[in-house]
């Protein structure tokens, strides 16, 4: 493994650990859950690409499963645990699909395109994560729906609301970082992994 690849994977591990630490901040707003860990993973994915982003998200998901999921009642069975932890958290790394376009826009100083690529890619990654939570909500958490409400509607409302809240938060922070510290998204002399 080259030094470049080692640096990318070490950086990804640090990002996964940071994302996990951020999960310990109070993150419930009524029935909605804010996932602060999406923010560093979004920056990392936009910096290093989707492969590195998915890998880091997978590590974050496994950490969350072992450190919080088993102890908080969030783990019902192995399939639900797989869907809502490793798969859902890894899906956030899909934000990295916008890496090469974003970095080209950064080099050309095309601010509108920078924001468009970053926001669009963040939409993909956040909604991919919450799609997995939606599926698990329908099949595994649907019994918690209020009487007379379908599990599909229950999961859509619960997970959709959290997805929108997290999407807004992640995009606001990513855009602010693009304005104030664009170098975070473009490592010197390195292409995305």
Automatic annotation (TrEMBL):
Membrane-crossing segments per the record: 5-22, 82-102, 114-143, 163-185
Keywords from the UniProt entry: Membrane, Transmembrane, Transmembrane helix
InterPro entries: Thia_Transptr_ThiT
Protein name: Energy-coupled thiamine transporter ThiT
Organism from which the protein derives: Loigolactobacillus zhaoyuanensis
